[in-house]
Amino acid sequence: MKRNSRLSSTLHILVHMAETQEHALTSEQLATFIHTNPVVVRRTIAGLRDAGIVTSSRGHGGGWQLGRAPEKISLAEISAALGETLLPFGTEPESPGCLVEQAVIAALDDFRVEAERLLAEKLSRITLADLAADFHRRYELIGVTSHAV
Fold first, then answer.
1. What is the CATH number of domain 6-148?
2. Residue-range domain boundaries for the chain
3. Which residues fall within 8 angstroms of residue 22, CB to CB, at 6 or more apart?
4. How high does pLDDT run on average in the chain?
5. Coil, strand, or helix at residue 90?
């Protein structure tokens, strides 16, 4: 199954923001954490600003910061702000005329509803602080010299 790279990149960025709450991080700095360019960072986290998960400021000393404490940000909120489904199949066929795709969607509908409910429950219980704490623990265990991992 293909992983949701937008969610993965966003979580990567947010964990690093949680680790450096004392100052704002620029799009350029955040881009180094996910090995991309600053435009991708701005596009990736724009919806998070609209949801109040992050804030941004321009000018000297400006950049991106968490909009509230990491303990107050759940993975469910982050996922909702991105507006993407986390499941590998949707409710609408990619090829509307395809009868096989229609049959697969119909066969998996009950499962999809239950999977979405369970996933939403789990994501609402996990916070950004949980991820940051686990990252920090792993970081300390391996003794790396750079946060860009």
1. 1.10.10.10
2. 6-148
3. none
4. 85
5. coil
